[in-house]
User: Fold these one by one.
Assistant:
Number 1:
Amino acid sequence: MKDILTIVFRLTVSCLMAAAVMGAAFIVTDKAKKHNEHVREEKTMYGLLGYGARKPVPPTLALHQIYRYVITDQGRQHIGYLLPTGREGKTEYTLVLLDLDGKMVSQQPTRLDGDQSREKETRDRAVMEAIGPGKGLRFADHTIVVTDSGKRVAYLLGGKFPGFKTFINVMLALDPQYAMLGLEVLEHEEDPGLGAEIEKNYFKNQFKGRSFDVLKGLQVVKEPLPEQYRQALEAQVTEEDAARIMGQYRAKNIYALTGATISSRMLTDGVKGLVTKCAYRLDVLDRVLEEQKIAVSF
Amino acid sequence: MCPAVGISTTVMNGLMLGAAVLLVQVFSSVTIALFKNHIHPRIRIPSYTLTIATWVTVIDLAMAAYLPGAYAKMGIFIKLIVAFAIITMRLEMFACKERVGDSFWDAVGMGLGFMVGMVVIGFVRELLGSGAVLGHDVLGFKPLLFFILPSAGFFVVGLMMAFFNWVEVVYKRKKRTQA
């Protein structure tokens, strides 16, 4: 009996010690880790927009964050958009509530400013404060409007949808007409050598440059990928050639990966869903903003 | 062994994993050697696992913070070091009986050996699988795609073991003839 007590005591003490060490390590490294994630995210975003080592980001380019929330109030659902509203050099956020038909319900200023909005907890708290107590709040998604000297050049949106095994997490860039600028697979757990090929250039670049109308009706076909197209997708030919070849296939369907038709289809359907929903929401939001004359920064 | 063969597709990956294992081994061995008198013999294996898990978590966090490039590539495998039998084995065989200094050097030796093994496996797989060494294309073509796939890791490990067995046999034979 005494033996068991010592065992329990010693195990507890060792667990506490281990927890202390891990906690200390977490506190020390957390800031740097968040910073790295942020840098990586930014790199992906600028990469999708076509900026990189060879083409630096122009200083006139600005990113404006839109956060979408679903707010439940006594059984009724509202969509809350947290929008950056521009004042000279300082970003403030306004919460605009829409009902499900796309009509504006109300708008409230929040206490959030530019840098704070990045932290999910501070953001959620600020939204909670703005809508008042006793309401349900759920974060839905995050869209970024990219402007160059005040003119809209692109939208960046992230999204998660089911893949063959678990979830596929993507980020994609659309132009103002909702045509695809680029697609990046951030996270997935598909099978290596089969479904995992979705992150390779020869698959994901098939989405590049497709117009909104094509994206809406995009299908996956089980046909071998033409060799010429593959070379263009992997950028093995000159830029002009690649653009010409890509142009030929722009209105055609997506060629499925060999041995991973379901992964290919899941990704295509997921992207299709993200783009159509985003286009609908942004159209509704733009109309409301214009009707109500809300001065947003994008 | 599974994470090891999963990740050792290039020399660089092998080296990084080897370095991570070396650090975990050294820290765990020293910790166990320090606390060996306080560990109840009936719960020594859970204590080892706890120690290893702690150090793996610390190294995982540190890598995510200060080596983001490498972490993006092998982050999920770092967490699997917890299950590496080689570390638990050294703790059970050596660190829980010997002094701190001896345990430290034992751990360094073990870790370095593992690192060399990983680098050799990575070298073979990178050369045969993608025709490159340290990311530089040296062959210009890809001889055997099979070596990039996880199963080839076991294959290379098997070949290495066969090689060392052969060396041992030759060495013993030589000794016998000398005697």
Number 2:
Amino acid sequence: MNWSALWLSVQVTTIATVCITAFGLALALLLTRVRLPGHIVIETLLLLPLVLPPSVIGYYLLLALGRGSPLVEWFNVRILFTWPAAVVAATVVGLPLMIQSSRAALANVDPVLENAARTLGSSEWRIFWQITLPLARRGILAGVILGGARALGEFGATLMVTGNIPGRTQTLPVAIYDAVQARRYADAHLMVLVMTGMAFAGLLWVRWLEPPPQRARRETRSDAVEE
Amino acid sequence: MVPQLEVEFEKRLGPMLLQMQFSVGAEILVLFGPSGAGKTQTLQAIAGLMRPDRGRIALDDTLFFQREPGARAFHLPARKRRVGYVFQQYALFPHLTTLGNVAFPLAGRPDARARAMALLERMRLDHLAWRMPHELSGGQQQRVAIARALAAEPRVLLFDESFSALDRRIRERLHADLRALQAEQRLIVIYVTHNLDDAFAVGHRLAVVRDGRVEQIGQLDDVFTRPANRRVLEILGIPNAIAARVVEVTPAQTVLDWDGRLLAAPPLDLPPGAEVTAYIRPEDIRLIYPDRPLNRMSGQNLLEGQVIERRPGRHLHHLRVALNDGHLVEVVHPASSYTALPLLPGTPVRLVLRKESIVVIAPRSAEGQGDAPATVLAEPRDQNTA
């Protein structure tokens, strides 16, 4: 068992999940509330990481983080082949899941409820935090978990942008690949088990968040008595 | 001081142009009309949930909306208007308790909870304070919605088909609540419905809305006894509309030509030859027993025909009679009358109607404009036809 890889994976996934939550929620809000021109194109672009081969994402990230990119030349951000690059890769692949899930949840909030809050004197800010967000919380949380699970499992792009330096930039999925390459099967077994367990727990949590259909539909209790 | 809400605006809604103009004081104004007439959009414009293309909406000195040539464009956000809105689907916040819902507009005030509790008591809901909305019946939910709207201390309260999903008995109680509340707080209330019984149960005044405009506005019984035009007749479901021509006018009566049949109507200030729209009050048409002499009926209009349909009701029975010239006439009579007459379809009947039962509503040239109610009416407003 490669403990440093596990620890790095936990760190990378945690930070990436925070980024996924913040950016994903902001983008989902933008897509549901603002009718941008060409919004279908923007939505499709945001979904692209779901279907692109990891090597393609890795290549784009090399371009974005490597020499000659605005990040490096103008802002002097040099993170290629360091562990923050793994955070960037994990965020990029986890983002589409978060956007999809939370966008559906936000769109499902009845606009009549938001209008009711407006006529009751609420600011848009308060409506978002006290009405929209609590009502969309299941879908948003599901998006966070799915995005986080995807971030944890990120392999291909990470391999390309972190350089696979054991103890410094090697995350758990990459460490498994290394162990198999080096025929350390006992090591690989254990790490595969840990990964599977974490992914299973995450998906189980998402399933548990889905409301049972009859509870979601029910609006008025049939046995409530009029007085 | 009597508050006054002045509404005047235009809004293009697909093929329809919504053109609203009316004013409301401390009263319950019913907006009545078929669905799709623009009633909900009118409420939304008042509440600030929709922006008209043009016009001005103001409550006393408080400008709500203004967009007119030469004037400063202005839109007061919904949250600053103090206009309460009670939706048909209740629109309670499903993640908050009854108390949480009512206290929502009071957030930040130290007495929020006490005030919310007081409002719940006012609406007889205090025993349900800790229930979630989905644990309440429809009528209870709507009472919570009203309490919540009141918590925001509105000056105007809007009801958008709010009670139409509820049973008649619960509706009646809510109507009584609403009337008491309006009188107590001197609220401006606008109540949208497509149900005439509801309109009569709560309304002080009635605005008949169709195709995006107010066809007529006035006291409820005034609108009913003096519909402004044929469209209002149709919307109110008043039968027996006729198109006729004035033949002769004397101080005692007007003689109308209804497709060749002469009818005596109340005296009118109209020249002979004028084309008019009128209707015959269905409850004013009397049937004559075949064995009774006709001489007592002199000076009244006599019509002959045969029954084609009979619809019994709890209190009133409805008859459709085909006159000999082919016109159809609807007759309404108390269930206790004419019990000795066989009124089965096919039975020949004679009908008699006093001249006062013919109500001339408008000269037909004014029909297209749909303007103010016809002022030609000299008919006294007595409802007692017996």
